[in-house]
């Protein structure tokens, strides 16, 4: 299984080119952070990877990718359903029995420090808990490619840090993970990082975009190889 992105470029009708000549690949067990200023096209790139958006130029080749998971910036759920229900659902949809599904679901809830919320309705979860629930559900759906869009945007620094470390562990579970992020911890939890600002056409003026100070040290290189031990330090392997 692999994801190959070849000479990709995109612009929406009537707007500037967001990025161009973007080439990279992601394999199972790898995590790739997609960074860059707000508005540079991170979410758009994720949509292209998911096949929801057709790129203006270039191509995405998904070889052997049967299931794509997506964790959005904003958590969503059914207000009256419990946290456990949300995590169990993808397993029941695959035909697992409720009892077995609950064992897996509790593992995933534990991974994101959500065990205590298992029987709480979605409407009673905090923003951070709800976002972690989305990650737990994504783990249970066992995708080949997991797209995670700004997973820590709603979380406090401490929680965000633990989420980032667990994201690193996801790669160890055998799926390819692509994470759009502004967060330093999240970026460092990934094995590689791409700065989309490096793929903006030179005439594009990004001065009006929000400069993420966390990226200042990465802009010098297109692809930054990050310390792989950051991925393995958590001790929370399942
Ligand atoms: N369907 C669309 N039609 C026209 N323009 C769009 C469309 N979707 C997104 N855009 C524009 O494309 C640009 C990139 O948007 P995108 O959401 O991909 O950026 P981003 O890097 O993910 O931003 P953020 O970090 O703020 O989430 C923005 O200027 C946005 O307004």
From TrEMBL:
<dbReference type="InterPro" id="IPR003593">
    <property type="entry name" value="AAA+_ATPase"/>
</dbReference>
<dbReference type="Pfam" id="PF00005">
    <property type="entry name" value="ABC_tran"/>
</dbReference>
<keyword id="KW-0547">Nucleotide-binding</keyword>
<protein>
    <submittedName>
        <fullName>Lipoprotein releasing system, ATP-binding family protein</fullName>
    </submittedName>
</protein>
<keyword id="KW-0067">ATP-binding</keyword>
<dbReference type="GO" id="GO:0005524">
    <property type="term" value="F:ATP binding"/>
</dbReference>
<dbReference type="InterPro" id="IPR003439">
    <property type="entry name" value="ABC_transporter-like_ATP-bd"/>
</dbReference>
<keyword id="KW-0813">Transport</keyword>
<dbReference type="GO" id="GO:0016887">
    <property type="term" value="F:ATP hydrolysis activity"/>
</dbReference>
<feature type="domain" description="ABC transporter">
    <location>
        <begin position="3"/>
        <end position="227"/>
    </location>
</feature>
<dbReference type="InterPro" id="IPR027417">
    <property type="entry name" value="P-loop_NTPase"/>
</dbReference>
<dbReference type="InterPro" id="IPR050166">
    <property type="entry name" value="ABC_transporter_ATP-bind"/>
</dbReference>
<dbReference type="InterPro" id="IPR017871">
    <property type="entry name" value="ABC_transporter-like_CS"/>
</dbReference>
<keyword id="KW-0449">Lipoprotein</keyword>
